Amino acid sequence: MDNEIFLDIGLFYSVLIGLIKEPSKAFSVQCGLSSVESAILMTMVHKFIKANTPNIRTLVVLICLSVFYACSSNEEMPDERLIEKDLYDQAQIRLKNENFSTAIISLETLESRFPFGRYAEQAQAELIYAYYKNFEYEASRSAADRFINLHPRHPHTSYAYYIKGLSSFTDDSGLFARFLGSDLSKRDMDPAQSSFDDLSEFLSRYPESKYAPHAKQRMIYLRNLLAKHEMHVAGYYMERRAYLAAIGRAKYVIEHIPNTPQTPFALSVLVEAYGMLDYQELKQSNLEVLKSNFPGFSIKEDSVTEKRSWVNVISLGFFGDKGIPAPDA
Asked: Using CA atoms, how far apart are residues 10 and 30, in angstroms rounded to an integer?
């Protein structure tokens, strides 16, 4: 009985697919079915529906979903007959509509079909942007490196350096970081340092770039984050009475990452650590520097935390901030 039902399901599915694809041929000779066979199939379908009424709705839903998925997949894939200009225009429409996943498909297709075409270099630059906006940061960084190596003197090379620096550190773009404001200074800072170095290289090469102001703001943020990480480690050492190690971290912030919101915290660590080690002169000298330069300092302050607009908060960080621009056309 189960085998018969399984066979009936298979035949029923085949008939429906035939009706969807070519209704006029579903029960015709062209499909390899005689009129007698068609009548038999229709009888079996009727029998199947009658015997399996409770399950027929589920089957129809599954078939509709499979057809819908196939149609949607076909819409995403570019037509093989599209010429270079059509592919480029399709990619531009998808980028404009912020359909970045489908824009990536169009741009990759354009680059693979026309590697030496008129829009190949522009497609490579826009792929860097599309990957970044689609949260594929490693792919964006790789695409930027590839563009830099292939086109070291191209007008979009500065953009590739810029996005490469932004893609190196993206921990603050995650959902929890956006909504909950998690303390990123307690994480591994190697990506942040890499991003800082990449943006520093970008600014040294293209100080007059239109992307330079945002790169500078990003570097200030990363610099403060790196300093806060050092102070987090210094606090860890202080809790465990490793005062010399804490002093080393605090002095590193003062000497190598100066003029950050963490500078007064570093001085306060020096004052406390030297006091615990009974180095009264060093304690007093650092206390005087702290009082003279930061008279209103309070240990409870934490000015590294970014102030966020209410729009940014309620939208989980997806709105309320300046977006990353696409490369010029």
From this structure: 20
Which residue positions in the chain have pLDDT lower than 70? 1-82, 172-182, 299-322
Sign for the CA dihedral angle at 47, 51, 57, 62 comes to negative
Q: How far is CA 98 from CA 82, 107, 159, 284, in A?
A: 21, 14, 19, 58
Q: 147 and 128 in contact (C-beta within 8 Å)?
A: yes
Q: Which long-range contacts (CB under 8 A, 24 or more apart) does 300-309 make?
A: 303/261, 304/185, 304/224, 304/225, 304/227, 304/228, 304/261, 304/262, 305/181, 306/181, 306/221, 308/181
Report angle CA 167, 171, 177 to the nearest 5 degrees. 140
Nearest to 177 by CA among 223, 211, 221, 131: 221
| Cβ atoms of 118 and 89 closer than 8 Å | no
Cα-atom radius of gyration of the chain, to the nearest Å?
Answer: 31
**Whole-prediction pTM:** 0.68
Interaxial angle between packed helices 120-133 and 157-168, expressed in degrees from 0 to 180 and rounded to the nearest 10:
20
* Residues whose CB falls within 8 Å of the CB of residue 71, separated by 6 or more in sequence, listed in order: none
